Amino acid sequence: MKSFRRTLWLATLAAAALTAAPAVFAQKAPAKAESKEDIVLGGSIPLTGVFAFAGIAIDQGIKDYLSILNDGGGIKGRKVRYVPEDTGYKVDQSMAAFKKITSQNKVSLYYADSTGFVKTVNPELDRNQNILMTGASFAKEISDAQKYPLQFMVGPNYSEMVGILLQYIAKTKPGAKIALVYSDTEFGRDPVDAARAEAKKLGLNLATEIVTPPGSVDVSAEVVKLRRADPDYTIFHGYVSAPIPEFINQAKALNLKTAFMGTFWSMDNTTVMRMGANVDGFLGVMPYRYYYDAEGKSPMLERIRKMRPEYQSTGYMQGFLSAMLLTEAARRTLEAGNELTGKNMKTALSSIRNFDTGGIMGVPLSIKGNSIPVGRIYRADFKQQKMVPASEWISLQQ
Amino acid sequence: MRIGSAKESYAADTALFDSTTQRVWIGLLAAALCAFPFVASEYWLYLACLVAINIASTTGLNLLTGYTGLVSLGQAAFMGLGAYTVAILQTRLGSPFVVNLLAGGGVAMLAGVLVGLPSLRVKGLYLAIATIAAGVIAHFMFSHFSSLTGGGSGLTVPPARFFGIELDDSFKLYWVIVPVTVLMLLGAVNLFRTRIGRAFIAIRDRDISAEVLGISLLHYKLLSFAISSFYAGVAGGLFAYFFRAVTPESFPLLMSIFFLAAVIVGGMGSILGSILGAVFMTLVPELLKLMVGWLPVSVFGGNAALILSPIRTIVFGSMIVLFLIFEPHGLAEVWRRIRRLFHLWPFRT
């Protein structure tokens, strides 16, 4: 037994050494066998961990758009090669993935998985100057183009999402009473200050703010607080699902008349419908159209439906549109005869006006800053098991 | 004991490295560490710096948990305090990074003494739970003292400067992070050649007997917390300079569990164990990624990353479980066994 154990250990160590040694030195070599023409889109993608549900969909979305693009000849005859790496939704691993991908490839475009990573990698982007980045974070801070000159987000930031909800409320029920429920996380707290200011500006009454600890499940005390405030609308932010269903179920049991609302990451059709029958009427802001939306002309959505007959989540749409805009920036840069530097690509991206996304977004898209403050209110129809439009497209763009 | 290394004097008996062979190997290791940045890619330099930071923090926790027997789940919080101190000093005062790192360690050390107070009454799991409170309080402070900490969005740290050079990439930071870690390791090894270190071990083995021997539990338990937190604080400071962004969510409870796991996998009560544990916990997931990358992708129809990523996580988890079953004394014991194999070869142990 003892000798077996020793052999086992030696074998493990030998395997580890064999794995590590060539890797350390091999990677010092310049880019690995790569066709000179390829444009590389790197990605720190959370294929495992708490954000894997979105990461897997984002990954598929990026892949599908790039296969459509490459099948159509790529960008000026150059193919776009996707190099993803799993991060487990951890900043240190996302950063390791970034370092690994950028040291093995000449990366021009990059998809980032979290706000933490985006902040961490920002000085690196400034130093590198050759990468344009977007990602899964809609944090308000990232819409500051001075601070994050080589990044952008594919949709409104969290404050703008809440702003769109408040505009809808102000139009539907002027002077309405509102409750803001958010998680005590960076994600949750992001739009709070902006929500307060915007509610005041629109003449809405922000009656109460309820903060829930991260990962909280029991919300009885919070629901009592909500009942006391008796708001017309309750906006949730900083959650994907839990504790939204608990809130809704307990509120229904108490006969609360409030309408519940969510922001992008809690708006996926499958996630909402899984909350149960009480979710019927749940409202929320979506910058993209749902997989099954059939209204109007939407060639890209039809193409997606053809490629993937089963429902694709909102994360998929986010990944798909991210790849579309990143590569559009690269295309415009090359067409203008410029080099693929971060600055050139950002300038090209900012030149986008009335861009047709093929139906992924419901309105032609114009990019003026680091965010695209456009969205539409959708409502949960439990009977149809679908999110259906509840408003026109609302734009906060001046 | 090694054949042919008779200890003929007290100095020889207490020497850190007791044979020429050992000294040669250490010299080779030092040379390799110096040469590494010139041959390794940015990715491996990044990992080397990350491993060094994790080694510093794991060593701190090992002093407390492995040597003194006080289980703590507050290591990430102490790192956070160090990181925030460094970030605040660097952004507001722009003071030299050495001063900032020491201040980071100092602030964490004071917090460590406070958090260590319950250790005088509770032990084991009870103490672990008490130290979790440190994390909760620290998180609250980081996210609510916005004027100082930047609130939810945290602080962006300007690069450290050394004689006018901005330490803004892994290559330059390597020359700060690795030497600081080496110094801390030497400090830790030397600690156990003093009364303090031996007192820690005595407390771990049986605290009542230690007190009977004249070791003040109040003094030494708090001292152990202080030293351990100082290590965490300095590691946190290095973290701040390395990642250049510090947010309340940079130091979750999971991070404390990571360090505890590193201590257990590496070997409790062993400095070598701290090194091996931190290396294992940081590098094995990356090595598994590399291995996955070498598998024939076509078998998985282009979805290799998607299919293999969860498997990789399961393999990593299983490896930890297997370690605990087959080698409860940790990697340090494996290392000793391998050394013994070479010392006694061709004879068997």
Give short descriptive properties of this protein.
heterodimer; A: alpha/beta; seven-stranded mixed β-sheet; four-stranded parallel β-sheet; 13 helices; globular; B: 349 residues; mainly alpha; two-stranded antiparallel ribbon; 3% strand
Ordered list of secondary-structure elements with their pairings:
The complex is a heterodimer of chains A (398) and B (349).
Chain A: H1 2-26, E1 39-45, H2 52-71, E2 80-86, H3 91-104, E3 107-112, H4 115-128, E4 132-135, H5 158-172, E5 177-183, H6 186-189, H7 192-201, E6 205-212, H8 220-229, E7 233-237, H9 244-253, E8 259-262, H10 269-273, E9 283-286, H11 299-307, H12 314-335, H13 342-350, E10 374-381, E11 386-395
Parallel strand pairs in A: 1-2, 1-3, 3-4, 5-6, 5-7, 7-8, 8-9
Antiparallel strand pairs in A: 9-10, 10-11
Chain B: H1 10-14, H2 20-39, H3 42-67, H4 75-93, H5 97-116, H6 124-144, H7 146-149, E1 155-156, E2 160-162, E3 165-167, H8 170-191, H9 195-205, H10 207-212, H11 217-243, E4 245-246, H12 253-266, H13 271-294, H14 304-326, H15 331-344
Antiparallel strand pairs in B: 1-4, 2-3
Helix pairs in contact in B: 3-8, 3-9, 3-11, 3-12, 3-13, 4-5, 4-6, 4-11, 5-11, 8-11, 9-11, 12-13, 13-14
- Residue ranges of chain B: pLDDT <50 for 5 or more in a row? none
Q: What class, by secondary structure content of chain B?
A: mainly alpha
Q: What fraction strand of chain A?
A: 15-25%
Count of individual helical segments of chain A: 13
Q: Which chain pair shows the most residues in contact?
A: A-B, 49 and 48 residues
Task: Characterize the largest beta sheet of chain A: strand count, sense, and whether it forms a barrel.
Answer: 7 strands, mixed
State mean pLDDT of chain B (0 to 100 scale): 90
Helical content of chain B stands at: over 70%
Oligomer: heterodimer
**H/E element string of chain B?**
HHHHHHHEEEHHHHEHHHH
Percent range for helical residues of chain A? 40-55%
Radius of gyration of chain B: 21 Å
**What kind of sheet is the major sheet of chain B?**
2 strands, antiparallel
Measured by DSSP, the beta-strand proportion of chain B falls in: under 5%
Q: What's the overall geometry of chain A?
A: globular
What's the rounded overall pLDDT mean of chain A? 89
